[in-house]
């Protein structure tokens, strides 16, 4: 597996709950994986972990592996090489990546391209007059052109893993479509994996192979993109779909009530329960496991089939089916120790096992 986060929990001092809580996520070679959720759900923190980058002073438990290497254990030259050669991150604002006084060509050469390849890369990401562009400085190019330059820079070292953090969110739809197509081409030509972070669930469903939905630092659902769109299982996923506009859809938008929790909020049960129209009494005290429908065999156990009837028609969200199974001890975990102790992370356990906490300096 190219990228593998296993049960990653990250907490910084002074917050009541972790930034990331038991996040498990994978990206295979050549795969485009979406990561969606509202602001503050932990998407960027998840992506930065793949760079071996956690907030200063953070404690963490779990692991992050890229191509089998434990990246949170890397230091010094090995960490620098990992960030330069193996993984590349593309941010929303290209001006934050580009040095305003350096020429575009220098930016690409610094990232490992020869002068000839710098020109080729700019042509490959759809920039006209690439021979002239390499001599220009960032203020001479538009935002869309600069984002193409940043993508060319990300591809310069032929990274195995691309992390795109809202990389197209600030662009007009035409430029967005072209850049997405170029990222896909890069993935195909270089066999790279792509973690694609976006607020836009419709975009993720259209563009990605697989999608993870995050809420309050946790993964709540992971599905193939098609299944997520046709049979969204978690009430939060369905809420995201009904509050995002789509072209040609005249359905009224229904916002999810309330706001996402802050890091000072703690929960005795499901973090989404206060905003969930389907919450039951036990949701206040039980934390559902993420909905991994395909992997966990719930389809065989009676959930709607891929491409089948939407779950609303089935009358029950998958997390509630899971609720029904908890009594058999197979799903979910009681949060009593955390609730009673006021949410202290140190007391948290996963499947009854104490977490090994490591400080990241
Ligand atoms: N270094 C840090 N110290 C303290 N809190 C942090 C730090 N970095 C991130 N956070 C907090 O962690 C939470 C998750 O942040 P993150 O940036 O990962 O969310 P996100 O889903 O990417 O949000 P957005 O879509 O707005 O970028 C937020 O509440 C954020 O304020």
Task: Describe this structure as you would to a colleague.
With 361 residues, this protein is α/β, with parallel strands linked by helices. It has a domain at 3-250: Rossmann fold, CATH 3.40.50. Helix content is 33%, strand content 19%. The protein has 15 helices and 15 strands. The strands form four sheets. Strands 6-7-8-3-9-10 form a six-stranded mixed sheet, with helices on both faces. The radius of gyration is 21 Å and the shape is globular.
Keywords:
361 residues, alpha/beta, Rossmann fold, 6-stranded mixed beta sheet, 5-stranded antiparallel beta sheet, globular, binds adenosine-5'-triphosphate, Oligopep_ABC_C, ABC_transporter-like_CS, membrane, nucleotide-binding
User: What is the CATH topology classification name of the domain at 3-250?
Assistant: Rossmann fold
Work out the strand percent: 15-25%
The number of helical runs is: 15
Helices and strands, in N-to-C order? EEEHEEHEHHHHHEHEHEEHHEHHHEHEEE
Shape: globular
Q: What is bound: which ligands?
A: adenosine-5'-triphosphate
Number-wise, the strands total: 15
CATH evolutionary superfamily of the domain at 3-250: P-loop containing nucleotide triphosphate hydrolases
CATH class of the domain at 3-250: Alpha Beta
Report the span from N to C terminus. 27 Å
């Amino acid at each position: 597996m190219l990228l593998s986060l296993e049960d990653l929990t990250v907490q910084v001092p002074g917050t009541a709950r972790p930034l990331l809580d038991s996040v498990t996520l994978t990206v295979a070679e050549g795969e485009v994986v979406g990561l969606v959720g509202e602001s503050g759900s932990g998407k960027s923190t998840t992506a930065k972990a793949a760079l071996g980058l956690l907030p200063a002073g953070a404690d963490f438990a779990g692991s992050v592996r890229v191509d089998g290497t434990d990246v949170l254990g890397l230091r010094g030259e090995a960490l620098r090489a990992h960030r330069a050669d193996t993984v590349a991150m593309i941010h929303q604002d290209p001006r934050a990546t580009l040095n305003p006084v350096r020429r575009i060509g220098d930016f690409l050469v610094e990232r490992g391209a020869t002068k000839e390849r710098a020109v080729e890369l700019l042509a490959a990401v759809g920039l006209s007059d690439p021979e002239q562009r390499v001599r220009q400085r960032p203020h001479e190019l538009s935002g869309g052109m600069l984002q193409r330059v940043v993508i060319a820079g990300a591809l310069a070292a032929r990274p195995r893993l691309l992390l795109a953090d809202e990389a197209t969110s600030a662009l007009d739809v035409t430029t967005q479509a072209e850049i997405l197509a170029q990222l896909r081409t890069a993935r195909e030509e270089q066999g790279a994996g792509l973690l694609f972070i976006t607020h836009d669930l419709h975009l993720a469903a259209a563009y990605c192979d697989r999608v993870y939905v995050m809420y309050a630092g946790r993964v709540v659902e992971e599905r193939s993109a098609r299944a997520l769109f046709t049979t969204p299982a978690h009430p939060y996923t369905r809420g995201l779909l009904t509050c995002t506009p789509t072209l040609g859809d005249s359905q009224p938008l229904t916002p999810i009530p309330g706001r996402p929790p802050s890091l000072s909020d703690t929960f005795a049960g499901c973090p989404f329960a206060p905003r969930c129209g389907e919450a039951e009494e036990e949701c206040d005290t039980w934390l559902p496991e993420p909905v991994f429908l395909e992997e966990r065999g719930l389809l065989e156990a009676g959930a709607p089939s891929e491409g089948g009837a939407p779950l609303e028609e089935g009358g029950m969200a998958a997390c509630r089916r899971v609720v029904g199974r908890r009594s058999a001890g197979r799903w979910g975990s009681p949060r009593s120790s955390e609730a009673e102790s006021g949410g202290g992370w140190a007391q948290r356990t996963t499947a009854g096992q104490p977490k090994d906490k490591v400080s990241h300096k």
